[in-house]
Design goal:
The protein is built from 7 helices and 26 strands. It is an alpha+beta fold. The chain has a 7-stranded mixed sheet with strand order 6-7-8-10-11-12-14, with helices on one face. A 6-stranded mixed sheet has the order 5-4-3-2-1-13. It is elongated. The termini are far apart. 44% of the residues are buried. The chain binds 2-acetamido-2-deoxy-beta-D-glucopyranose (2 copies).
Length: 483
Amino acid sequence: MKKMLYLLSCLFAFIPFTKTDYLAAVVEYRPDQSTNSIEENMAKYYIEIENAYFDHHAEIIVFPEYGFTGIVEDPTNYALEVPDVGAQVTLIKKFQILYKIAQAAKDKLYVALNLLEKVPKSKNEIIYYNTNVVFDKNMTVVAKYRKVNLYNEPKLTPGDPNQNTSIFTTDFNVTFGMFIGYDMLSYNPSRSILENSSITDVILPTAWFSTLPFFHSMSFHSGYAMANNVNLLVATNHNFSQGIGGSGIYGSDGIALSYYISEDVDRWNGKPLFSVVKDSMTDNNCLESELPKRIKNNLENFQARRYFDSDHYTFKDLNLTHQNISEDICEGSFCCSFEIVLFSAVNTSEVYKLMVHTGQYSLGEFKRNDVRICSLLACETSDSSTCGTANVTVTSKFQSISIKTNVKDVHTKFYQPVTLTTDLLPVFNTTYHSEVNNGTRSIVFSTNGPEERVLVFGIYGNSGIREVASLTLLIATMLMYLV
Ligand SMILES: *[C@@H]1O[C@H](CO)[C@@H](O)[C@H](O)[C@H]1NC(C)=O
Ligand SMILES: *[C@@H]1O[C@H](CO)[C@@H](O)[C@H](O)[C@H]1NC(C)=O
């Protein structure tokens, strides 16, 4: 009887849904990389689509970057042709695989997936892209996006920075934008796409290399959703031994409605994550509480990368014997003001530092020229190179943390929060406020309540100018001027 009542209340809970609330599914998936991998993966996608629809009434499902093939360097044997936006996928040989996927979703839900796309240019020339494609319930391609900011993908061609096919509006009345992976670190497209103000929701298929301390998957994704006030659906490829993982459905306040980060080896039949993504304040706890929402295993073997060139950053120690701390820290003209209130009983042998950096930041081969970061960091020892590692353990409790910065407002510059606890989850209960007055952007980022196990609490900014991504391009340009 109790169960019956519960079910009934769930049924009623559907009623207050406003038109633009919807149920989303994202799949964290470790692709099969056997010889028939595309067929194998396609078959598994098929099952995920059916489960998402029949068991959970999902209205859209998102699959990860390189989900069809695994992360392969040579696209030759893996790439597929993709119909143009507006075309219905038909059962002709070159669209066979996509036809099966579109058919699985027919009359059920929207499917967003990522694949290697091939475009025959002439008899001897084929070009390859890293592409997202979205099918509607009618087997029509409603959107397509080719990755602009490639990362270690030498055989692929970057998408046109001005492509305009990556936005679509669903029959449940939500307008989505999308891009891929580390595109999120560049103004174009991750911020430029939001110049279209009808976009309220963003789709991110990715194979996200979680990188400490500032680019861990959930940390960065949550910060993006919060700073831009959009819902965000992230589906990442899964390979914990390379630090690839951390999927979630984030509300526009940056809070994960559901998430998954784990060092399970296998995750194809990992159930998708589901969540009602809300446009309104409608409460619907019943439906959510039924679903597997938050999964995080011990992450001891989750091999996040780390890029932290501490010799080039500016630090200031936090004196934990003081309960109220007010410090400014600058590098060049970029300054941040920290207001920190600690609880009285702290272990004063723990080490916290304030850090600021402006200029170059390297993520391996992905170098950026005009990064700005300021952050509170927990450290293993007083040596700054030990700040923000996965080995830090801290017990100090903060009553509040607040960071302020004022920067010149430049169109293509963007900022967002970055936070992590020592559990490698974002600090969720925070407020981010950013406003422009007379050409100055004022940002305030604060906790809403007490926090502990804080590893990273900061603001990240970027100019949007892609730096020396391709030395070859630079040389090619120089040669052009020489001839
Ligand atoms: C921290 O503050 C206390 C009290 O003001 C002072 O005695 C101590 O020297 C400070 N520690 C450091 C490392 O500055
Ligand atoms: C205080 O922190 C230090 C450094 O992290 C640690 O070695 C020590 O065990 C801690 N003491 C207590 C009582 O927790």
